[in-house]
Amino acid sequence: MRRWLPNLIALSIVLAGYSYLRWSGPAPAEEAAAPDLVRLIDEFDVARVEQLSVQSQDYTATFSPTAVEGKWTAVISPGTIPASLEPDQNRIDALVYSLRYLYAGRKVVQQPDNLATWGLDQPNWILALKFKEGGTATLRVGNHQPINNTYYAMRDGDPSVYTISDTLAASLPQAPPGWFLTAAPPDTAPAP
To answer: pTM for the complete prediction?
Structure first.
């Protein structure tokens, strides 16, 4: 046993050195390079948003922040929502922030021959932001890809078709009542 001990120690040192160099060394070039991320809507300050419009195949919802409290007001067409219901501020804020930080998963095609292939000839949703200084940003969301959990999307001014995560579309209500709280919030004023 003693005869093998120096060889066993030498082998252990060699394996430890190899492991150290292999796992703590610099990353290979292909792993170090970050993928090119494409922001689908240019970075914007949320305070600059004058209007958010969500158009589906069934309804159009238009939201505008109020000047006093920064809350969102809503106009839905067709107008089927009772005036007593308050817009869901959290849902609207979440959508605006989702659009602010929306990146494409990948570019599918540079110049599509037929937008119908991607569901972008008659998109499921058209999301439009209008800014106080007059600029706009529009995103069209087309067919769903359930295998990849993505949707096809296209931004105005860019002929390319991209994929986006389906979490954005999951936050969009299928029917207008989803934009509103189910009941008016309780009055928070203290009792006399």
So the answer is: 0.74
